[in-house]
Amino acid sequence: MDAKIGKFLDSIGNFFTGSDTIPWCDSDIVLGCEREVAEAEKDSSDERKSECLLRLSWALVHSKRPEDVQRGIAMLEGSLPSTSDPLQMREKMYLLAVGYYRSGDYTRSRHLVDRCLEIVPDWRQAITLKKSIEDHIKKDGVIGIGIAATAVTAVGLVAGGLAAALSRKK
C-alpha cells in the first residue's frame, strides 16, 4: 500500500515538475563529439564520419542548451533524405523526435515517435519518449484549462462588479 501511495505522489510531483526520463547532455560531451567529427572529416571513411555525426546529433538534441537542440534538429533534418539504411533512418527519426520534444514541439515529436514504433513496436526508448510526450500534452492541456477557467472567472468578477456598480447608480 505504501508503495502505491509513493508511486502516486511521485506521479503528481512529476506532473507538476515536468520531469522525464530522457537523458540530458552537457556541453563538454557536445564539444567532444564536435572534435571527433572534425578528426573524422580529415582522414576517416564515410562510415566513420557518419557514426561521428550521428553521435554529435545525439549529443545536440539531448543538450540543455536550446541552440544546440535546434542545431541537432537541423543536422538530422538535413541528413534524413539521404539516409538509405533503415536502421539509421529509425535512429535519426527517433533523435529528431527527441529534438522536437526538447524544443516543445510535441505534435511533431509524437508523429515521429509513432513512425519509429511502426517500424519497431516494442522499442523501449520510443515507448518511453511517447509516454513523456503524452504526459506533457496532458499537462499543457490541464494548465491551459486552468488558465482559461481563471480568465473566465476574472471576466465574470469584473462583469459582476460592473453590473453591481451600475445598479447602485440607478
From TrEMBL:
Protein name: Mitochondrial fission 1 protein
Gene name as annotated: BIGYIN
Protein family per UniProt: Belongs to the FIS1 family.
Function, in words: Component of the peroxisomal and mitochondrial division machineries. Plays a role in promoting the fission of mitochondria and peroxisomes.
Keyword Transmembrane helix: yes
Cellular location(s): Mitochondrion outer membrane; Peroxisome membrane
Keywords (A to Z) from UniProt: Membrane, Mitochondrion, Mitochondrion outer membrane, Peroxisome biogenesis, Transmembrane, Transmembrane helix
A GO cellular component annotation in the UniProt record: mitochondrial outer membrane
Top-rank taxon, per record: Eukaryota
Biological process (GO), any one: peroxisome fission
InterPro entries assigned to the protein according to its UniProt record, in alphabetical order: Fis1, Fis1_cytosol, Fis1_TPR_C, Fis1_TPR_N, TPR-like_helical_dom_sf
Segments passing through the bilayer: 141-166
Keyword Ligase found: no
Alphabetical list of PANTHER family matching this protein: MITOCHONDRIAL FISSION 1 PROTEIN, TETRATRICOPEPTIDE REPEAT PROTEIN 11 TPR REPEAT PROTEIN 11
Residues in coiled coil: none
One MF term in the entry's GO annotations: molecular adaptor activity
Bilayer topology annotation: Single-pass membrane protein
